[in-house]
Amino acid sequence: MRFFVFTIFPGYFDCFKNYGIVSKAIKSGKVEINTVNLRDFTEDKHRTVDDVVYGGGPGMLLKPEPIFKAYDYVKTISKNPYVLITEPWGRRFDQEFAKELSQKQDIVIICGRYEGVDERVKSIVDEEVSIGDFILSGGEPAAVVIMDSVVRLIPQVLSEEESLKVDSFSDGLLGYPNYTRPPEFRGMKVPEVLLSGNHKLISLWRRFMQLKKTYEKRPDLLEKAVLSLEDKKMLEYIYKGKNFEDYLKGEKIA
Ligand code: SAH
Binding of S-adenosyl-L-methionine: at which residues (predicted)? Predict the structure, then answer.
């Protein structure tokens, strides 16, 4: 997958490209993150990328010409890139959106700055994307958020240990709680079941805890999640404020 990020601050992405999973994915050739400096597509000696807003009002706008020229340039490399623009009123970015984007070959992300971009730029845009109901000073942090979450969904980017399947949202629920050594720390114990070595019991406990966490923190997600009969039974216990042990007794499992 190739990203082409249109920005007036290409250096902004240096740090992002050099750490962790993203850096590994770039080194192994699974992803390219190309910054396209809009100033390289200007013609005046000041390399002007912005201009005043027609009709008056505060601030400046990104001019259309450098963005269209940068787009023409990308089209010489990629036949049919999917074009995103960061906008606070865009489609809300979430895991589903990230999954859709991870299927694309080439993605352009246009990062707005100042008051935003000239409206005519929308003629080359496939989707407007927002990372939440707040105002950033530019699209670059949004582009980083988008690329980071898409990169980890590209096949073979994550190793088995970092498997996607246990991530929150991957199956419509939040993830289960995890512990590492030591088994007791400052009086806080790792749940007994996790030390039991009983894999069937552990996976039941994890599912129960996923459902419980989702119910407590994001009940809205339960409405859309695909739930098995067993999940629904667990939820009956959770709704009544019962714990995993109660569920086990009721179920006579393990
Ligand atoms: N004048 C605009 C805000 C401009 S903020 C307004 O009133 O809505 C400058 C740029 O930051 C935007 O063009 C956009 O590219 C980016 N941006 C700001 N908030 C964002 C958000 N929540 N999600 C994605 N991009 C955002």
Answer: 112, 131-136
Give the residue carrying structure tokens 């404020």.
Answer: 241
Residue span of the structural domain in which 62 resides? 2-167
Q: Kindly state whether residues 158 and 242 are assigned to the same domain.
A: no
User: From the CA of 117, how far away is ligand 1's center (Å)?
Assistant: 10
Q: Which residues contact 34 (CB under 8 A, 6 or more apart)?
A: 2, 3, 4, 5
What gap in Å lies between CA 236 and CA 242, rounded to an integer? 9
Entry pTM: 0.94
CATH of the domain at 243: 1.10.1270.20
Place of tokens 């890139």: 81
Q: Residues 103, 11: one domain?
A: yes
Confidence of residue 168 (pLDDT cuts 50, 70, 90): confident
Residue 246 domain-assigned (yes or no): yes
Query: Could you count the other beta carbons within 10 Å of the beta carbon of residue 118?
Result: 17
Q: What's the full length of the chain, in residues? A: 254
Average pLDDT over residues 162-181: 87
Catalytic residue among 167, 171, 230, 231: 167
Query: What is the CB < 6 Å shell around ligand 1?
Result: 86-88, 111-113, 115-116, 130-132, 134-136, 138-139, 142
**Mean pLDDT, to the nearest integer, of 65-89?**
98
Q: What's the token pair of residue 80? A: 């049919």
